[in-house]
Amino acid sequence: MSNAISRQAGLVSIGDNVVDHYIDQRVYYPGGNALNVAVLARRFGLGDVAYIGLIGDDEEGAHVHSSLLAEGLSDAHLRRAKGETGKAKVNIIDGDRVFIESNQGGVRKRLMLRMDVDDIDLISRLGHVHSSCFSYIEPELPRIRAASRELSFDFSTERDRDYLAAICPVLTLAFFSGSDLSNDEADSFIGEMHALGVASVCVTQGERGAVFSEGGRVTRQGIVQAKLVDTMGAGDAFIAGFLAARINGASLEPALAHAAGSAAKACEWPGAFGHPHPAE
């Protein structure tokens, strides 16, 4: 990786944060794709990372805020509004997280994030942006893309073709969760996403690893074995590790290997990135 490149480029992760409430353990952890990617990209080697998001004025929002600061990220672009922070209720079964219910983003869904002048300046300076389908910022994506060099987006398991057709053309890289897809189905789906206008596509497939496609070339990446504690955030860690490596100047294969190793590391600690808080 090139240190020169890492000093000139960074990542702005924009959008969702939540607390993941582990019902059986009576504890919650900070999480959410955009927040996880910001924290974990920094943890996995990217020096210049910023987070833009919205929290509620409740205890959970305060914990998200303090956890972000504890991880060395700035709160300069963090908004706080009256209402509930995003919350998801989960249980862990054999090390795998099972979602029970959520408040659908809480205040973040009611008050859409809008990019101000300082946000756009930050995006222009760092160049690389990541967001997700849980962030409710779709109307802002064209402005974000216009100010950025690269824009990645995590669709999770979203497969609605109208939604994909609306979002893919403004992206440079799309991530999908596709453990339910066979290899042939994943290859066909990737082809469809390229046809919608996104140049690079990555589908993660759980224990079968991931498949990455760009420039007519398909690359498959296997998993790295881990001492399983909690799979919460493993997919986000893959994204974070990949983006950290690529922004730091790595070529595709080393970046994918770094992503797989990052996902394995994330399985070895509780929550998406730790910071437990007692829950009633």
TrEMBL record:
Residues 19-112, 176-272 form the Carbohydrate kinase PfkB domain. This is Sugar kinase. It comes from Rhizobium rhizogenes NBRC 13257. PROSITE patterns: PFKB_KINASES_2. Belongs to the carbohydrate kinase PfkB family. GO terms for molecular function: kinase activity. SUPFAM superfamilies: Ribokinase-like. Gene3D superfamilies: 3.40.1190.20. Keywords: Kinase, Transferase. It comes from the Bacteria.
